[in-house]
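debug: dumping io for the single-chain case to check the tokenizer round-trip. Nothing else runs in this session.
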Amino acid sequence: MIAEIIAAGSEMLTPFRQDTNSLYLTARLNELGVQVAFKTIVGDNLEHLTGAAKIAIARADVVVFSGGLGPTEDDLTREAVGDALGLKLRRDVEILTLMYKRFASRRMTMPQNNAKQADVLEGAEVLANANGSAPGQYIDTVVGRHRKIVILLPGPPGELKAMYEAECRPRLAATLPERHMAKRLLRMALIPESQVDERTAPIYKQYTDVETTILAGSGEIQLHFVCAKPSASDAQARVDELAGKIEAEMGEAIFSSHGESLEEVVLLMLGLRHMTLAAAESCTGGLLAQRLTAVPGSSRYFLGGAVVYADRLKTTFADVPEEMVRTEGPVSEAVARAMAEGIRRKTRADVGVGITGIAGPGPGTGPDEGKPIGLVYVAVSFAGEGKAKVVELNLTGDRERIRLWASQHALEQLRRSLLERT
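debug: decoded output
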């Protein structure tokens, strides 16, 4: 069983307003085993909205509208759904009376245009709005021998959520066939999407009852598995079986098998090894520390560190020799290694990380003259193990992207290094 969500409102076709209701509705529908297959945003145009409604009703079992139930001329959801289903609108006297009373209780005169909020489609059940003036509507009908459920909800999130929980969820749960949806999420860092798909497609294509989605971004690949079955245990067993085969294929490239972030995994690995971490950051400006400290409880394993942006602070806080900075340049393998080792010693941590690089917008200057934008060195130092290991990176993109990817490389280098120290 599939659903479509239609958000009505021209404001969501501008750069200034986003449709957030569909995220909430997707999660709630998934809980009932209903998969959202389509999401549509339509402006305040009756022809466009009617066309979108006809398409949605033809291809989805459940269609949920949000917005367009207000009193103004551009609130057109009721009219559009009526046109799409061939249903007439009737003015509900009871709703109209309640609206007059609502305004009267506030010592206000109800504007005449508010009366359109009392227009109800033939055969629709009225959904009470505890937080606003626009009631919703619930239509359970048959179109071309196929059962269709069409729901009209108000646009304000506070009204929509309350109405769905009180009025829609009980109706859907009572009428829809029992379905349970199970999900799994596998995450990998710094591996090309094409490589992941080449290796995993022969596996996931065998599971036609499990929907597999591959998402790439921010130095990470995510594999999402979703399966709906009459039994929750059957659905979970299918996604677990597929996830297990993918894990066997990708091995240590997978850093998370249940959705944990890379920083969560690194902190967990430090805890299992009874190790602490400190960081000296230059081009990332504390981004690595920010990501780690965003995880609750990180203080047990992440001691802290220093943002050593200026060259003299590399010496003050990470014990990098001044002569090394002058001769090698602050963006160099030697300085990155010295930063990792120095911050580890200064904080008495078990592990030290050093990150230095050129994030742009201009190339290196002074001792780093001629070095390109995107050149980054990441060093990891372990107590009692000699020289820190340094990785040279040549990252692309703007300043923000280079900084983010540098922090991602640092975390993945930490994870890989900790895997070698069980």
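debug: round-trip ok. The CA atoms of residues 143 and 284 lie 57 Å apart.
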